[in-house]
Amino acid sequence: MVICSCNRLTDKDVESAVAGGATRPREIYASKGCKAQCGNCVPGVVCLLREARMKQVQAGLMQQSAPVTALSA
Predict the structure, then answer these.
(1) String of DSSP letters for 4-55
(2) Residue 37 above 60 pLDDT?
(3) CA torsion, ordered 31, 48, 41, 43, to nearest 10 deg
(4) Residue 41: which CATH number?
(5) At 65, is the secondary structure helix, strand, or coil?
(6) Which residue, of 12, 26, 44, 70, has the fewest CB within 10 Å?
(7) Residue 36, class by beta-carbon neighbours within 10 Å (0-12 exposed, 13-18 middle, 19+ buried)?
(8) What is the pLDDT of residue 60?
(9) In terms of Cα–Cα distance, which of 7, 30, 5, 6 is closest to 18?
(10) pTM of the entire structure?
(11) What is the pLDDT of residues 18-36, one digit of tens each?
(12) Where is the BFD-like [2Fe-2S]-binding domain (predicted)?
């Protein structure tokens, strides 16, 4: 889905940037070599950024809480 028509920024671009370490909207734009133009997309970018970061946190918590099984010799 296109989030920013000025820069052709998509939801996949946001997810990719977050996976690459982006934590702020400007870092999302920078990952595509652009910046916010008219600003109408910024709320959507922020929302997707929060969602993607939350998924990262949840994935990390799930990995930490995975049961450890003992191997018997």
Answers:
(1) ETTTTEEHHHHHHHHHTT--SHHHHHHHTT---SSSTTHHHHHHHHHHHHHH
(2) yes
(3) -130
(4) 1.10.10.1100
(5) coil
(6) 70
(7) middle
(8) 82
(9) 30
(10) 0.77
(11) 999 999 999 999 999 999 9
(12) 2-51
Determine the structural domain holding residue 56 and report its residue range.
2-64
Domain membership flag for residue 72? no
For the range 54-57, what are the long-range contacts, defined as Cβ-Cβ under 8 Å and sequence gap of 24 or more?
56/18, 56/19
- Domain-embedded: residue 29: yes
**How many CB atoms neighbour CB 19 within 10 A?**
12
Residue keyed to tokens 């996976």: 19
Angle of CA points 17, 6, 4, to nearest 5°: 45
Residue 73 lies in a domain: no
Helix axes 42-64, 11-19, angle to 10 degrees: 50
Q: Give the count of domains, the chain.
A: 1
